[in-house]
Amino acid sequence: MMTTSHNAVPSNATRRVMASACHAWASLRATLSLASVPASAVRATAVAACVAVAISTGGASAAHGQAELTPEELHVLRIEATPIGALPRIGAPMPASRDHNYWGLRAHGGMRGGRSGPDMAAIAGGVDFQLLGGSVFGATAGYQERECTLLGEDCGGHFMFEGRARINLLTGSSRIGAALGDYSSTVTLGTDLGFGYAPDFVPGQHACTVDLGVPVSLGMFQKVRLVGFLTPGVIWAVDCGGEPVSGQRNYMLGSGIGVQQLLHRGLDVHLGLQKIFRAASGYQFGLSVTWTLLP
Predict the structure, then answer these.
(1) Which candidate, 110, 162, 171, 106, places its Cα nearest to that of 135?
(2) Which of 71, 128, 240, 291 could bridge across to 208 with cysteines, CB 3.0–4.6 Å?
(3) Distance from CA of residue 148 to its chain's centroid?
(4) Angle between the 39-67 and 12-34 helix axes, to the nearest 10 degrees?
(5) Which of 155, 84, 85 is closest to 118 using CA atoms?
(6) CA dihedral for 277, 281, 282, 287, sign (positive or negative)
(7) pLDDT tier at 233 (50, 70, 90 boundaries)?
């Protein structure tokens, strides 16, 4: 759950500011009393002291959210803020007629698990264009909750966007399916290239990522098709304004299972799980639904 400004626990720095202000006020009040200063003046001084405490406390709280972010935490937040790190992977589309182009719609829901802190839930929608029943080019837009544990009061959420191209390199029959008596089974090997953007993933900073993957899918059966998929890949955080970015490689592995032609020839449902191999990262899992507009 996201922390709000009215139930946030003060940081140690905030407590120290408040304690120092209280001690200073107690000393000042005693001094004013001994000097026989009128009560109205004492009250006015109290108001000024309270204003000073509020300003100091607010400044300490604002600084707290940023002071807690180590370079590693900021890096992981950056690569988890764009769709490649926030949403689950999906399997390759079914082999289709090479005589037609196809349009498709997508809906995604994902969250993070495997470590402490909020789940950074994300939702998104997208549109795909499948060229002559093969390679797919798509765009995605969505919204993700921020990591409130680290950001403190600078919480809420941010938008995220992505462009992606999946190029089919090879589609052929599967010996695994043939061994099980399913001679319609296919194996699809491709390459996946994506660019992601998330404005203000941390207040005042933007996230940009580039990723490259090698998706492999195994599809079996015909009436309702079962698809298992595995996508090893690499993701880079790149500079798009704001703080400098190292550009170091981050390895990841996506996997999942999908059911295609579920109740309708154009309806597919996928369950996905993804891991980015960084110590501060958990794992990403979620559900995706795609709808292909058949000619």
Answers:
(1) 171
(2) 240
(3) 13
(4) 170
(5) 155
(6) negative
(7) very high
Q: Nearest CA to 247 among 235, 259, 232?
A: 235
Quickly tell me which residue has 């937040």 as its tokens. 77
- Of the candidates 245, 248, 253, the one whose C-alpha atom is nearest the C-alpha of residue 283 is 253
* DSSP of 72-91: HHHHHHHHHHSHHHHS---P
Structure tokens at 255: 């996997």
Question: CA-to-CA distance for 256 and 279, rounded, in angstroms?
Answer: 22
Q: What token pair was written down for 142?
A: 């969505």
288 phi/psi in degrees, rounded to 5:
-130, 140
Instruction: Judge whether residue 170 has pLDDT over 90.
Output: no
Using DSSP's 3-state secondary structure scheme, residue 36 falls into: coil
Phi/psi for 196 (5° steps) reads -120, 150
pLDDT in tens, 105-145: 999 999 988 765 667 899 999 999 998 878 899 999 999 98
Q: How many angstroms separate the CA atoms of 30 and 40, rounded?
A: 15
